[in-house]
Design a protein that fits this description.
Elements (H helix, E strand, L loop, with lengths): L3 E6 L10 H13 L11 H6 L16 E8 L3 E8 L4 H20 L12 E4 L3 H13 L16 H5 L1 H10 L5 H4 L12 H7 L3 H10 L8 H4 L2
Antiparallel strand pairs: 1-3, 1-4, 2-3
Helix pairs in contact: 1-3
Length: 227
């Protein structure tokens, strides 16, 4: 199985998510467009009616294109960890996802033209170290908006003393797979947790804390983190 780090950002740094409705719409699309069936046309009210975020949502039958092993939405970009279930599934899924969200966004904000900055980047995670750390990296992106931890990428010394507040902040940020890995159902119907659950153990929070505190561990190559 090949695992890919998939990412894209708004053109010219444009914010993709201006409010909770935009975030919810993208999450809704992560579920709905992961299907070999043709993409459906969704109106804005579909997001409000969707129960994809509830612990026991209605799950219609699908033939999925990909498995989503992790995800994070920032204000102007997104990160996904994806493996294919069928040949060509990744390309098909990303095309449906990007076009679907761009159509929604342009209609809602009465704009035209491209929304994303170039082609979606798909980076194969070939090294064991990358596999172990990449999920932590995705979830820790939330700290870019937390004043006390903006140097988390360098694992600054101040991070260690701030870990309790960091973990509290991560739990308050809904738009990632972090809560589901912590055992708190958030958007469980879009996520496959078994791959990283087997590798990192059942206590995901402990694994993430060890990563933050281990300032000697090998960093992930910058090209895998580019956004």
């Amino acid at each position: 199985m090949d695992l890919y780090h998939v990412l894209n950002r708004g053109i010219d740094g444009r914010k993709l998510f201006l409010d909770s409705q935009d975030y919810a719409r993208f999450v809704h699309n992560l579920y709905e467009f992961n299907d070999t069936a043709p993409a459906l046309e969704f109106t804005r009210r579909d997001t409000h009616n969707s129960n994809v975020g509830f612990p026991k949502p209605y799950i219609r039958k699908r033939k999925r294109l990909v498995e989503i092993h992790g995800w994070h939405l920032a204000k102007n970009h997104y990160h996904l960890l994806i493996s294919e279930l069928i040949e060509g599934g990744l390309a098909t899924f990303m095309k449906k996802l990007n076009i679907g969200f761009a159509n929604y966004y342009n209609e809602r904000y009465r704009r035209q033209g491209h929304l994303f900055q170039g082609k979606t980047k798909k980076i194969l995670l070939a090294r064991h170290e990358h596999f172990l750390y990449i999920l932590h990296y995705l979830h820790l992106n939330s700290l870019d908006y937390f004043p006390g931890a903006k140097k988390w990428r360098e694992r600054d010394k101040g991070i260690i003393s701030n870990i309790p507040k960091i973990l509290e902040y991560l739990r308050e940020y809904r738009w990632s797979s972090y809560l589901d890995y912590c055992g708190t159902p958030n958007f469980p119907s879009i996520l496959t947790t078994s791959l990283f659950g087997d590798a990192l153990g059942t206590n995901y929070v402990s694994s993430l804390k060890e990563y933050l505190m281990d300032r000697t561990s090998e960093d992930i190559d910058q090209k895998l983190l580019e956004y």
